[in-house]
Amino acid sequence: MATPPPSSAAASASTKVSVSPAAGAFQTILIVDLGAQYTQLIARRIRELNVHSEIVSNKLTAKQLARRPEVIGLILSGGPNSVYKFNSPLIDPALLDGRIPVLGICYGMQLMGQLLGGKIEEARRQEFGKTELWVDNHEDSLLFRHLNPNLICWMSHGDCVASTSGLPRGTKITAHTEATPVAAFENRARKLYAVQFHPEVTHTPWGTELLRNFVYDGCSARGDWTMGNFVEQSVEAIRSQVMGAGLRSADAEHSGDVICAVSGGVDSLCTAALIDRAVGSRLHSIFVDHGFLRHEEGDKVVQAWKTHFKSELIRVNAGPRFLSLLKGIADPERKRKIIGREFIKVFDEEALRIKRSKVAVKWLAQGTLYPDVIESSGVGMQAHTIKTHHNVGGLPKRMKLGLVEPLRDLFKDEVRKLALELGLPRPLVYRQPFPGPGLAIRIIGEVTAERLRILRAADKIVRDEIEMAEMERPWQYFAVLPAVKTVGVMGDHRTYGYPLVIRAVSSEDAMTADWSRIPHKNLERISSRIIGEVKGINRVCLDITSKPPATIEWE
């Protein structure tokens, strides 16, 4: 469950940026962004091999790299450009001086080839999709070590390294396809490796093994990026940051307590759990319950807190306040903005109350994740998308809080692994996505107390029945209540009630989604229970639209 968007005050209030616990603490592979849609996927694949990875701009210089002793290798991403065209992204040629291993992927291979004196040309036959690959010099290759000589890979390119006449001096061809004579090359002496295909995608089924060969055999990785190690490093970093341990006397004034917004989602709970473990009672967490949560969800958050945390959780039951502000409001964007602004106000009021109780609050904790950092720093897809990454309510300028962001090095799937490492309950860790405004945007139209009651009860039945069904669990499943009424018959009486829509989808990343095929017997039971148990509903419908053209949420 995401926290509503912040005000601009958060940025101006923050005077001290947090230090990433992972910075310098783990061996690191840098992914140089050259515009590929798969750049983040490369980084995630490296982390799955228990090696820390970081995405950086192609402006990285050899001098900057020399100041980072934890970096053990570079990967040049793919990209949509042609290296021989004007304004295509380049890199500092000195990065290829042989000091650390470098792997070029697709465009990264072509750029490496050109910088090494090779020739890049438009392919006589472009390759897109699954392609048969043959390995050359199998015994001498580092990348293809222990792999089959005949493989399937995923290609997506219109340019290529010219056949043997365009091969960079000192390199050997290590793989080819029917259309591409140079599908991979290596220069073991200079620690340079390149592949034309994409080993990071699942369509290259053995791609992880190739990356493993580069990371462990080429870069001599230790594999120290584990959630256990991350917890240990993070706790020490937070303790030093918040309590001033090990800091210069000039920084001692930054020692103080931490305030944290808790939404009930895994990001905010993990953030609070790490800080709780580091500083205990010096953490003050505020749970703003806006009244739009699912059945008993707020109570479950409080119960989990009592079981797993040392510090206090302040629950603010602000449901009536939020509901009154939405009276007469049907537009979904207006509902989101009203809820976001009011969330900030409630959080601010509670934060000021804590300040007035003579608690020296000097830090604001946020559940910022690594994808947010990438985009807000202008890295990733050549900085086509840039956004700010503050994700809790803004605070008054006079509070002058610094930031504690212990998750800023993690992807979403890593946060879930961290949550389990921290001992958080599995139902909270693996709960399905839930929007910040909650049920307020699953009621299509004005939000009222009666409609909230109806939707909350019906949604519980939908979730309970799908979770008990003998089927593969959908990625997300919930109920939607359109604010219209339909005619029905119950017994001998005519009814005029709401329809309820069941939305269940399968997805990996929410970018695309397909509607889930729920068995008919389970749909029948869901419909029967809702009509019989939830007063006010007389019709149940199933949304069978994929994304695109629809979105997962209705509003």
Structure description:
This protein is of the alpha/beta class and 555 residues long. The chain folds into three domains: 9-19 and 227-429, HUPs (Rossmann fold, 3-Layer(aba) Sandwich), CATH 3.40.50.620; 28-218, Class I glutamine amidotransferase (GATase) domain (Rossmann fold); 442-542, GMP Synthetase, Chain A, domain 3, CATH 3.30.300.10. Helices cover 31% and strands 22% of the residues. It has 15 helices and 20 strands. The chain has a nine-stranded mixed beta sheet with strand order 2-1-3-4-9-8-7-5-6, with helices on both faces. Strands 15, 16, 17, 18, 19 and 20 form a six-stranded mixed beta sheet that branches. A hairpin with a 7-residue loop joins strand 7 (172-176) and strand 8 (184-187). Helix 7 (266-279) crosses helix 12 (412-421). The longest helix has 25 residues, at 332-356. The chain is globular, with a radius of gyration of 27 Å.
Shape: globular
Low-confidence stretches: 1-17, 246-252, 381-399
Query: How many beta-strand elements?
Result: 20
| CATH fold label of the largest domain | Rossmann fold
- Main-sheet strand order equals 2-1-3-4-9-8-7-5-6
Tell me the β content: 15-25%
Work out the helicity level.
25-40%
